[in-house]
Amino acid sequence: MDAWRTSIVDARDGHIRLRGYDVPALMTGRTFTDTIFLLHQSRLPSTAERALLDAVLTGVADHGSGAPSCATARLAISGNRQSISAAVAAGLLAVGDDHGGAGLGCMELIAEGVSLMKTEGLSIADAAARVVAQSRQAKRRLPGFGHRVHSTDPRTAILFGLAEQGGIAGDGVAFVNALEQAIASAVKPLPINIDGALAAVLHDMGFAPEFGRFVFLIGRVAGLTAEVAEELAREKPMRIRVPVEYDGVAPRDLE
Amino acid sequence: MDAWRTSIVDARDGHIRLRGYDVPALMTGRTFTDTIFLLHQSRLPSTAERALLDAVLTGVADHGSGAPSCATARLAISGNRQSISAAVAAGLLAVGDDHGGAGLGCMELIAEGVSLMKTEGLSIADAAARVVAQSRQAKRRLPGFGHRVHSTDPRTAILFGLAEQGGIAGDGVAFVNALEQAIASAVKPLPINIDGALAAVLHDMGFAPEFGRFVFLIGRVAGLTAEVAEELAREKPMRIRVPVEYDGVAPRDLE
Amino acid sequence: MDAWRTSIVDARDGHIRLRGYDVPALMTGRTFTDTIFLLHQSRLPSTAERALLDAVLTGVADHGSGAPSCATARLAISGNRQSISAAVAAGLLAVGDDHGGAGLGCMELIAEGVSLMKTEGLSIADAAARVVAQSRQAKRRLPGFGHRVHSTDPRTAILFGLAEQGGIAGDGVAFVNALEQAIASAVKPLPINIDGALAAVLHDMGFAPEFGRFVFLIGRVAGLTAEVAEELAREKPMRIRVPVEYDGVAPRDLE
Amino acid sequence: MDAWRTSIVDARDGHIRLRGYDVPALMTGRTFTDTIFLLHQSRLPSTAERALLDAVLTGVADHGSGAPSCATARLAISGNRQSISAAVAAGLLAVGDDHGGAGLGCMELIAEGVSLMKTEGLSIADAAARVVAQSRQAKRRLPGFGHRVHSTDPRTAILFGLAEQGGIAGDGVAFVNALEQAIASAVKPLPINIDGALAAVLHDMGFAPEFGRFVFLIGRVAGLTAEVAEELAREKPMRIRVPVEYDGVAPRDLE
User: What residues contact residue A79 under an 8 Å CB cut-off, 6+ apart?
Assistant: First the structure.
């Protein structure tokens, strides 16, 4: 097999470099969040950008021990206590469009809206109205808005505040705010949730839409490791059995 | 990278062969269970061996929709409905020493006992007593015995009956029966469960101990796919939230 | 948490039943392939249906030890030899639209075509032409046709032969054949591959489209277990390191 | 099912708190690395502790794009481009005793040595010699020492330097240094590698041995997301096929 090409790790001369920077140098002068930013953008963040990415990662680390990702990790370690990595991986497998996935979807909406503004010369309000109308017509949900518990998500204000203070807020934050208005007009008021907020600020820091999914995985893995550690420390193997109620066909005989 | 060596799939001349047999030929004259046997033993089973392996696989396919493997798969698909393979994989990740894992452990005990009989000339009863004593001294559990629900597991009698009728029962079945006696004498009566029974008959068909784990994965994947299919067909995304009760430190302020 | 409802496993009275049938009864009179069929259709297959499903499962068990699913499983066990289930699960995670995924896609095309015939009264040739035209317009690939190695896939003839002999071939086989003609007319001749063939016969046995993905996972897990067993038996831990060539930014200093 | 107990996330009154601290407060005043520390120790780190944990996480983020974890993630996304979480999870599944796993093992050695010093009044050199002798007798490897590429790992000096400067270095660093001496005397000189170094400093910050595995998963997930992003952006689906060489049984006919 031919060598695979990569632009991430450079190990050519006894040094290990990430995106060109020596790892030992990154280990002293920089933080883990800087490394995450660097790995995905090939540049180091400003102080304001680092603080904002830190806030995003903490915001998604763990938001309820009974969420699918956390419960999946706990169930896995309950049956397979020999493999910590299997349990953490199982937790990540519950992350998708319906759980932790709206960030990616909302970043795609933002990209679509910003493109409409440029290519068709639409105002931001018109672009937002267009995106909402198109989504409704296609019966797509509008990812990043609404929440099953909160009427407003306090994490949204934190992220937008940091983005404003740091001079980072731009098209992303403006367009998500415009979408919120357009949704209120066309459907009903739905608050910007954590996924919508992180989509906005990640867009404004220059991340590609896929990073909306990656950032959730990176943040959540911190919470999953704590959930697994707690299950190992406090609970017995196989303590979890989900109660089920059978409602299928009646007992029958093989002919 | 150099080519990896393999003795499984031969694709050298436009044919695809498994362990030397043409796949199209296997597809007509043989069953999937034959293929499983062939992949792990490099020979095809007798009629009696096939029937016995079929019974083992059906016996472990699904034994309760609320078991960790099944519940894990359902939770994963609940949050990530776009990836069927992720949900099935998550279910397998819950399989380990504590869930579906006793087959491997019991096959190791059988190998240990059979070896004692040969190298030290012990009778089967003495070898079993020795294995039980050593396990107790090392505070190891005796995998393959006891069950949280059944006082006797009906699947055990089925497997042993098929092994006797088919002329397959040998050292494995004999040693597991001897272990049951030795455990009853030294500790308390514990029935041979499905893991102990499948370990015995798999040993007698010539499988290596690791197959005790593999066979559970192969059989269980059938049940997991059905669990995932049912979750997709009958339930809404994110319908599962496990209720949790917080008992950690009280609310506190950042200094 | 309320009990989860299920129509699969019934454990209400000390018995364990799958879709209404006692597991011990299934273990004697029936095969593992019967159990797979039963779990997904809630009925047992005829002899011809069982033979056809056996052929499908053997056909996808392992078609090359270097395919992504197999290589993924081997890499995982190479770094994490303590967890067999983790390695097999890793192999399944490589299964998606691009690898093992065309069965599901092709079953959806069949369902679409059959529906066009009924709702719009189209002939089978016209329905096939319409499906091909729509796919081309939407720039969707036509799953189930073409192969990177074979000009014709020998497994296709086997499956169609069994379906004809067993009196199972119906709309599915007819429509996939019609699609092959329509593709040859509109684009270029592309052979029906294993995914197209299994989609046709699974449709004709009454399976839902999702089973096109499930059947690949069930069959492939057999191959994955053999790949992992071979890696454990013949190779050293960490023996695999994929060679990479760095082509990213030049070494640079932190400011 | 009864509610599961947890000491991690508190969502009782409309707030979300991690280990007692409001998430929005953590998002402004603190970093993601603080959150990781908090989740596992239920206290926030000092400035020196934070810098040290940042260094550990960056040190393990990605150390070669061809390592099993990275290659596994790339193979998975190559076949299954629809599921980002599946690919990242597959990468984690390659992490075990042989890849990324020595941290946990070395933290257990440290705990063992520190306990010997206390319970048997041994000097640190004698405790280290004892641990080395016991490991050699049991034919266990000594995790945390030696490296396939480097004669000395530059990351070790960085971590020990930060630990000294920050006043954190204690029993852990001292005992790992004593182990290095004892290994050089009893076997041959083997440098302290990244796993041995992170084990030492994590011990000195009060983490339990399991965190030696968790920290690798948390750091590595950053690298895995970048590897997956690059594969998606630069490569075609299914571009990876590992070359294999068949050396099994010759072609044979079914009887």
Answer: A237, A238, B67, B68, B69, B72, B94, B95, B96, B98, B99, B100
pLDDT at residue D148, as a whole number: 67
Q: What angle do CA D36, D40, D45 make, to 5 degrees?
A: 60
The separation between the first and the last C-alpha atoms of chain A, rounded to the nearest angstrom, is 55
Q: What is the DSSP string of D55-94?
A: HHHHHHH-S-TTSHHHHHHHHHHHH-TT-HHHHHHHHHHT
Contact C220, C62 (CB under 8 A): yes
How many CA within 13 A on the CB side of residue A91?
33
User: How many angstroms separate the Cα of B75 from the Cα of each of A53, A140, B69?
Assistant: 29, 23, 10
Taking 50 as the pLDDT cut, the residues of chain B under it are: none
**Amino acid in the structure at residue D13:** D
Q: What angle do CA A207, A212, A216 make, to 5 degrees?
A: 125
Does A15 contact C251 at a Cβ distance shorter than 8 Å? Answer: yes
CA dihedral sign, ordered D25, D31, D37, D39: positive
Whether the CB-CB separation of A153 and A195 falls below 8 Å is answered with no
Instruction: Please state the rounded mean pLDDT for residues A109-125.
Output: 95
Q: How far apart are CA B46 and CA A246, in angstroms?
A: 38
Q: Does B233 touch chain A (CB under 8 A)?
A: no
A196 near A142, Cβ under 8 Å? no
Nearest-angstrom CA–CA distance, D71 and C244: 10
- Is B9 strand, coil or helix? strand
Q: Specify the 3-state DSSP secondary structure of C246.
A: strand
At C2, the pLDDT band (50, 70, 90 cuts) reads: confident
Task: Calculate the average pLDDT of chain C.
Answer: 94
pLDDT for C78 beyond 80: yes
pLDDT tier at C44, thresholds 50, 70, 90: very high
Provide the β-strand partners of residue A21. Answer: A18, C252
Tell whether D95 is within 8 A of chain C (Cβ): yes
Three-state SS for D171?
A: helix
Predicted-complex ipTM score: 0.96
Across the range C168-187, mean pLDDT stands at 96
Q: Kindly report the number of other CB atoms within 10 A of residue A246's CB atom.
A: 17
Q: Is some CB atom of chain D closer than 8 A to the CB atom of C94?
A: yes
Contact (Cβ atoms closer than 8 angstroms) between residue B224 and residue B92: yes
Tell me the C-alpha distance between D251 and A140, whole Å.
Answer: 54
pLDDT at A172: 97
Cα angle A51, A53, A56; round to 5 = 110
Rg (chain B; Cα; Å): 22
Q: Which chain C residues are Cβ-neighbours of A44 within 8 angstroms?
A: 254
pLDDT value at D193 more than 70: yes
pLDDT of residue A38: 98
Cβ atoms of D192 and D109 within 8 Å: the answer is no
Among residues D119, D136, D17, the alpha carbon closest in space to that of A155 is found at D17
How would you label C106-142 residue by residue, b for 16+ Cβ within 10 Å and e otherwise?
bbebbbbbbebbeeeebebebbbbbbbeebeeeeeeb
Sheet (strand C9-10) strand order = C9-10, C17-18, C21-22
Residue range A209-239, pLDDT digits in tens: 999 999 999 999 999 999 999 999 999 988 8
Mean pLDDT across the stretch C37-60? Answer: 98
Give the Cα separation of A244 and C11 in Å (integer).
9
Interatomic CA distance for residues A88 and A74, integer angstroms: 9
Instruction: Name the H helices within A61-204.
Output: 68-79, 84-93, 102-120, 124-137, 154-165, 171-186, 194-204
Q: Which of residues 181-210 of A touch D (CB under 8 A)?
A: 208, 210
């396919």: which residue's tokens? B61
Distance from CA of D254 to the nearest CA of C (A): 15
| Interchain proximity D83–C93, CB inside 8 Å | yes
